[in-house]
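Entry:
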Amino acid sequence: MMLDCLPLIHLAAVHAVAGYNSDTLGLGLICQKNSTLASIGRYRNSVTQHSNYALVGYQPVTWLGARWGAFAGMVNGYPHRNGGYFPMGGIISSIPLPLGELHIAILPKTAINPVTAEFSVAIKF
């Protein structure tokens, strides 16, 4: 099974409430095969710490030229979890661009975090 893997640049996060860092620059790798994706990476998180993550996703719906679906994975680097790994998940949309794809991930509100939208770009060579 051949996967299409591309470098991923994490750009920014937007939060439903004030007080969080939006500059969440980082690097990753995203691999896709049909409707399935997997990604790993490292970024500066919303509380100005470094986080590592691994996730898998499924995007079975194409609407308005974009792929839509859900993802789940693990992330670390947040003080409220003593920096350890914990589960994350949400909705993901992948929008084709001339030189790659824009990925928008929506993470739901939790007891600790507000709704968050994360933006990243996969670059084709």
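The beta strands are 4-15, 26-33, 36-44, 50-63, 66-75, 86-97, 100-107, 116-123.
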